Amino acid sequence: MDKIASFTVDHLILEPGIYVSRIDRDSETGAAATTFDIRLTRPNREPVMNTAEVHTIEHLGATYLRNDPAWGSRVVYFGPMGCRTGFYLVVFGEVSSADVLPLVRGLFAFVRDFEGDIPGARPEECGNYLDQNLAAAKWWAQRYLAETLDVIDGAHLAYQG
């Protein structure tokens, strides 16, 4: 079996950033979908996020992205990595990290500044609605904005290694 693309990246040197993980094309239509690795932590070198804050960022992020006037119809998926070091964003089209940088900045500013009830966090809307932590989600969003998104450079927009 072939190794999948994300397992070929050297996680010992990977830094927080926004990386194109892969671009897939539909064999019949030729339509493209780009998968982004939105990495918040340094894998295997610092603590991962807890599930409650990951879950909150997922709810807020998906809500923000699907309501964005320019990108909402292009968003296929936004969700957490199993390792809890970041998130995947899948959008229609062949898109670069630089193209989605303003969108991702907006997403994490939305999380950082969010007040109120978390969208979709009611028992009839979510299978694990109590596993939420808005305060921690806001902390991670602020950290990612300040330490990565507000100072990002080309090295953090392409996989290294």
Describe this structure in words.
With 161 residues, the chain is of the alpha+beta class. The protein is built from three helices and four strands, in the order E-E-H-E-E-H-H. It has helices at residues 51-67, 97-113, 134-149, and strands spanning 17-25, 32-39, 75-80, 86-92. The chain is globular, with a radius of gyration of 16 Å.
Question: Which features characterize this protein?
Answer:
alpha+beta; 3 helices; 4 strands; 161 residues; four-stranded antiparallel sheet
Order of helices and strands: EEHEEHH
Tally of DSSP helical segments:
3
The biggest beta sheet is recorded as: 4 strands, antiparallel
Mean pLDDT: 93
* Helical content (DSSP H or I, runs of 4+): 25-40%
Low-confidence stretches: none
Name the beta content range. Answer: 15-25%
Shape: globular
Sheet with the most strands: spatial strand order: 1-2-4-3
* Secondary structure category: alpha+beta
Nearest-angstrom radius of gyration? 16 Å
- End-to-end distance, in Å? 23 Å
What's the total count of β strands? 4
Task: Explain the layout of strands and helices.
Elements: E1 17-25, E2 32-39, H1 51-67, E3 75-80, E4 86-92, H2 97-113, H3 134-149
Antiparallel strand pairs: 1-2, 2-4, 3-4
Helix pairs in contact: 1-2, 1-3, 2-3
Concise account of the structure shown:
The protein has 3 helices and 4 strands, in the order ββαββαα.
